[in-house]
Amino acid sequence: MNIPTITLNNGVEMPALGFGVFQTPPDETATAVDTALRIGYRHVDTAAAYGNERGVADGLRRSGLSRSEVFIETKVWVSDYGYDETLHAFDKSAAKLGLDQIDLLILHQPMPQHFERTLGAYRALEQLLSDGRVRAIGVSNFMAHHLDALMAHATVVPAVNQIEFHPYFTQPDVQAANAARGILTQAWSPIGGITFYPGYGEHRRSVLDDEAISSIAESHGKSAAQVMLRWHIQEGRSAIPKSTNATRIAENFDVVDFKLSAEDVARIDALDTGHRGGPDPDERDPLEWNIDIAEA
Ligand code: A2P
Fold first, then answer.
1. Which of 197, 218, 240, 281 has the most CB atoms lying inside 10 A of its own CB?
2. Quick one: CA torsion of 201, 79, 50, 209, rounded to 10 degrees?
3. Could you report the per-residue pLDDT of 200-231, keeping only the tens digit for each?
4. Å from CA of 242 to ligand 1 middle
């Protein structure tokens, strides 16, 4: 059995399981990506703001796979929002990735504080799509009201909305808003890495140690991470687990030889705490993070 492919709302096909490189140091990225591609992953998710797009390119080259065999997704950072700036952001990312065409280009965050610039950035994505420079476009971290505001102006419905999504934070309202518009929900931190990263504060409790998930894992002879990834894929979502460890990269790909029961899925769905691990886009202006995207 293979990892399923999802058909996006514009007909483009994307492997449901992607390899994530958030927080992967630039000098470890090529090895991690090469390892993942050799194991069988055919989708890599990066971002201009991660500073490791060149490492993704090196990993792809090292793997010996041809360009067309791998689906590459990246994100425009907020400091490059605005129509002209985002067209240039594409040039920067494409050059670092060593690509003429990016498979999926998404806006990293809504900027409610500067929504005109967000709209300008999205208009640039629409232009890049119609010029064939990207195969699909989308957004990340948009909540239902951000999608409403976007769709009041946009002509192309985003193919994907990549959001924080693990058993402790499932955002049912955003899931519903995505589904109503034909937008694929893609999970970042799909095995809940964010629940044990430093800075999670009082709510820090690793979902990898959750009792319900551990007991489901035991019943299938699988790990907690595999159960969570199976949960995403079985429920029709895309997920992009991150690891720099070869054993865990392989473990996270080994999720097609078992099936969760409806009861398993309901038990996992019931674990939502409503507590967000990542920043709330309405509360903090992401421009304040002062991340600057270097020229290629
Ligand atoms: P590492 O890179 O050392 O493997 P997420 O993608 O949900 O944010 O999770 C990423 C975090 O989970 C990273 O800290 C990663 O560390 C760790 N991780 C990745 N895969 C596994 C796994 N199968 N079991 C336990 N931890 C994992």
1. 240
2. 20
3. 666 678 999 999 999 999 999 999 999 999 99
4. 6
